[in-house]
Amino acid sequence: MPSVYLVPHGEFEDANDLAAWLEDDLRNPSGRNGVYLVASAHYWRNIPTGSMCLFHKDKQFVGEGMLLQGLHPCSIPKTSPATGKPYEGQVRFDPNTIKRYKSFLSFPQVEATLGKSLTYRGVQRLTWEDYLKVQAVL
Predict the structure, then answer these.
(1) pLDDT tens for residues 75-133?
(2) Do β-strands 52-57 and 60-72 pair in parallel, antiparallel, or remain unpaired?
């Protein structure tokens, strides 16, 4: 069943770099058009299609997108700068749902809003209620 997931990003210099990539490349029909190359497949194996993914870097939430197609083999032979190894797979987001937040949200701000601790080192599942609370503070 689809849910909400926090997804960390190690391949970007900082939160602004990730946010620009979401807006200018991942969402762009003449860019990646929602195709997201996966450096570590184990993070993505259990995220079902239809899930909302919240993207973060350096403990800053920068944007989101809904997973349209789950993990499958990578169609682009490329090496991950984070691991130095070939990408392990790819997923696809609905480009129409990819958005960059106007103001980034810090981990402490979201933790206070949700009343729970968050992990920034791996994928973490949240509820749709949590998602609505996050949206309310954007």
Answers:
(1) 888 898 878 889 999 999 999 999 999 999 999 999 999 999 999 888 999 999 999 99
(2) antiparallel
Distance CA 38, CA 89 (A): 5
Nearest alpha carbon to residue 45 among 8, 9, 73: 73
| Strand extents, DSSP E, 16-134 | 35-38, 52-57, 60-72, 89-93, 99-106, 124-126
CA distance 16 to 46: 28
**Is 18:57 a contact under the CB 8 Å cutoff?**
yes
The helix or strand, by DSSP H or E, that contains position 54, with its residue range, turns out to be strand 52-57
The span from the first CA to the last CA of the chain, in angstroms, equals 26
Cα separation, 59 vs 64, whole angstroms: 15
